[in-house]
Specification:
mainly alpha, two-stranded antiparallel sheet, about 0% strand, globular
């Protein structure tokens, strides 16, 4: 009897032993299901990121006294709002992982993007520091779409290309953080100012990304698929995939020590990026005396490096894995974090504007390469609950941003940079302690025969990663209870 699946032929080469996941990436292809999901994934996350940080380049204007068109904010109040913008995402990222395992990424991605667009459109109603912080908290929930983004490509591509695929969609999505600095601060805001007051301009300009975000969130639900063989609801109905318990999935992922080591390391790369997205424009205004428009353009460079840097990190992780297995991925990961920590110290001590910009470009490239490298490791930790692990590790990025944000809120800027640099340096050493079953660690152990066969492509039976979770007895019991 032929297997029931939505598509009988595909636009890409696939591995039937890994649930028809694609073994290649064709960037100019938009065909369903693989590349359609790839492009929907990064575009939705890009838009969510754009919305998430749309307010950041406007802060130098919003913080002005009321008589000058702002609402009057202190440094502490600005950083409180920055922290709130990443705080809400932490909880949502923990939830999104097991929810993706259970329901798939497509619908979750669309709903969250539409939800985050609503408070973004309401930016103009802000009257004081408290209302700004509350608003940014709810807008920040959109940042949790990162988990959906990474899970979606993990469902569509095999382990040989998963590091590259995850890094590309994550990097191009993160690019929204740089584009929003440029578009909101240096294009849309000045454009709106030509026809209205400065205050009315910042109060209305966020409606533009909100409308785009809501429309895209609705669209992707209808034009894409959850998995190569169709949507989860149909696959469960025809028996192509088992029922998954979200609670059991989360528990399995959270009980793995490697998950939490990667949680810390991701906090020290993506957490640094979020902190820079919030701080960079204001930093170049206060330290180097730039205008709001100029500072926003300079700050956008940090995010623009996502165009290639995160993808490069994942690509090199895949390449060193092909030569050395997991040990290669871990050396690459630890090395990037150590270099990143050093560059934070160098950036903080840059005395000239040109020097600070050059160092920021290199610094940003390394930060985003480390993010891509992290998600080259994630799919191996426990393949059956990849969604939950991706969610926990993703939340680490936001926890890092909150912790570093508190440092910038309470300390002098230079001291806060030193603290951040020291923590990142220490996190690089944690790669020594990551030990994944069946794979060599950084300094000891050796790969299993299955793992060696997988990365050397010897044709021997290979261990699969990113497979559809197989239900164990515990999961089946919980699934039955959920139905009851």
């Amino acid at each position: 009897q032929a297997e029931i699946k939505k598509y009988q032929t595909y636009h890409l080469a696939v591995d039937p032993n890994q649930d028809d996941k694609a073994t290649e990436i064709k960037l100019c292809n938009f065909g369903r299901p693989h590349m359609r999901a790839f492009h929907c994934s990064w575009m939705a996350f890009f838009t969510a990121f754009f919305i998430w940080f749309a307010i950041a380049p406007l802060i130098p204007v919003i913080k002005l006294p009321p008589e000058e068109g702002g609402i009057g904010l202190t440094k502490q109040e600005i950083w409180t709002s920055n922290i709130c913008s990443v705080l809400g995402t932490i909880f949502m990222r923990f939830i999104n992982g097991p929810m993706c395992d259970k329901f798939g990424a497509r619908i979750l991605m669309g709903i969250i993007l539409m939800f985050a667009s609503i408070p973004c459109a309401l930016t103009g109603l802000v009257t004081d520091a408290t209302s700004l912080s509350i608003l940014r908290f709810f807008i920040g929930l959109g940042g949790s779409t990162f988990v959906c983004c990474q899970f979606w490509t993990s469902r569509m591509f095999t382990k040989e290309v998963a590091g590259t695929a995850n890094a590309l969609v994550g990097g191009w999505g993160n690019l929204g953080g740089g584009v929003t600095q440029l578009v909101m601060g240096s294009v849309l805001f000045p454009l709106f100012k030509t026809g209205m007051s400065t205050e009315m301009a910042w109060r209305t300009v966020s409606i533009v990304p909100a409308v785009v975000g809501f429309g895209l969130g609705l669209l992707i639900i209808f034009i894409s698929d959850d998995a190569p063989k169709g949507n989860y609801k149909e696959m469960k109905r025809n028996g192509t995939m088992p029922e998954i318990s979200a609670a059991a999935s989360f528990r399995s992922g959270a009980m793995n020590l490697n998950t939490w080591l990667l949680f810390i390391q991701y906090g020290c790369c993506f957490g640094v990026e979020l902190t820079m997205n919030n701080a960079a424009a204001n930093y170049f205004v206060s330290v180097f005396g730039q205008s709001v428009e100029s500072a926003a353009a300079i700050a956008s460079i940090f995010g623009w490096m996502n165009l290639f840097a995160r993808g490069l990190g994942g690509y090199i992780s895949d390449k060193v894995n092909a030569r050395m297995g997991m040990r290669g991925r871990l050396w690459w990961q630890g090395g990037l974090l150590v270099v990143e920590g050093i560059l934070i110290f160098v950036f903080a001590n840059s005395k000239s504007l040109a020097g600070a910009i050059v160092i920021m470009i290199i610094f940003s490239t390394v930060v985003q390469a480390a993010e891509g490298s992290t998600y080259g490791i994630v799919p191996y930790v426990n393949p059956a609950v990849t969604g939950s692990i991706a969610g926990v590790v993703g939340a680490g990025g936001n926890v890092g941003a909150v912790c570093f944000g508190l440092g910038f809120r309470q300390m002098e800027t230079l001291q806060a940079f030193y603290l951040m640099g020291g923590v990142v340096l220490a996190s690089g050493i944690l790669s020594v302690f990551i030990s994944i079953k069946g794979h060599a660690s950084l300094l000891w152990g050796k790969d299993s025969e299955e793992a060696i066969a997988a990365y050397k492509k010897t044709g021997a039976p290979a261990a699969t990663t990113l497979q559809v979770p197989e239900p164990d007895a515990e999961v089946e019991d919980e699934a039955e209870e959920d139905k009851a």
